[in-house]
Amino acid sequence: MKKLFLFLSLFFSVGLMAKTTYYVSPSGDVANDGTSWTKAKKLLSEVLAIPTIADGDEILVAQGEYTDIQLRPKNTLTIKGGYDPLSGMQNLKSPSVLTKPAESTGALIWFEEKNDWPLNGKVLTLDNLEIKNSISSRGAGVHVAYKTVQTNNVFTMTNCRFTGNKATGDLGGAVFADKIDVKIMNCIFSDNSAEIAGAALWIRDGKVEIKNSLFCKNISSETKGTGGAVQYKGSSCIVTNCTFVANNAGGTQGKGGALKLETSGPSNAPAENPNSFVEINNSIFWGNMAQAHSKQICIAHTPVEVTFTKCLIQDGVVKKNPTDTYAPIHTFAIIKYGSGLEIDILEEDPLFVDADNGDYRLKSKSPAINEGDNNKAAGLTFDLGRRERIYNKTIDLGAYEYNPSTETSLVTLAPNLTYDRINASIQLSELPVDNKTLQIFDLNGSLLASITIDSKRIDVSFLPVGLYLVKLGQGAAVGKIIR
After folding, report:
1. Could you give the CA distance from residue 269 to residue 467 in angstroms, rounded to a whole number?
2. Higher pLDDT residue, 9 or 295?
3. The CATH number of domain 410-482, selected from 1.10.10, 2.60.40, 2.50.20, 3.30.1330
4. pTM attached to this predicted model
């Protein structure tokens, strides 16, 4: 009986242990303990050096730019950027910027399992960070690798930007991930490079899912450069509502200007592998290049199927074993289409707002508008610009939703900091005056409540303490509240 009592006591004690939140701010100090904004550390490396940091803890990083030494986490951690210390609010349009000293080499965030650095079962989650101008032989921005395949963990990146990172040795200009499932949502990868493969992402031996993300102007540059943006080797890959533009698999033998996918199975063999598949949904591939073949997508080996659903692909006819150097897609796989018809692939110019200056939103006459499959976009509430993901009943192709009203329609919430109620001050531009539905979301975009407004004072006392997104009517801008 005593042993049982001790066991239960320990069980409940562990169960009641809460995660610790640490804080980093440009105005912080190394002498602080990092347990609040007023006691924030100055650098992420200072928090990682705290002896008591433990699995499940999170680190909140204030807006600003941080030049730091290589970061080597050793715990399961969530790192979130873009916070305003005064209000405690996270601004998803203003990520915290992480860089290294110009003379420093090696991945900016290094999370590789070694005999003296056990990471089995541990995983990172990154949110609202911009990682830029890091140089390493591989995985210059983030390097995540394990000794054995992780079956129950997912390396997650949301609302992140990777810019100007360089893998000077071989693989993964921005991100290198080995033996781990990877999920990416609402991220931008631009102007990254790798000497051999995967200028933005190089991922092996794990499932990968990429949603609502932009890959532009990335280049793999050596003679055999492959995967101008992404090179993936694994069993399943799902790409949904992404835009791939102006990526380049450089070199005379370059393959897969946007994507090089090597799914499980013997090369060039007709036998099907029941555990292997590729899905590419609601996505745009435009202006990507490869010197050898497959300027858009190269799919090697033979999965059960590669399914394209509602995509826009430059010169988009799928060709098997092409002899044409500039054929858009090269594959030995079994090709299928979401509707059963090849019409699922469009070929017209997507009509970006200003591609030369990096604005890949859609013009009003874009053929990509209202051409997607809503069923493939489950869980997508906002587009990459934090606008409503489905504006006019049918989702658009690519990472950005066309919405003429979002530039001028405003939802003003005052005060921003509230404990019981918010006042909604509404300015209408193009929205119908009878549209008075307020929606409240969590930070992952999940709808929590839909309220019909009958006054300017809206009761939110039913919400738990936390940070929320609010949206008024179709096409309105997104505001934030703290409850």
Report:
1. 51
2. 295
3. 2.60.40
4. 0.80
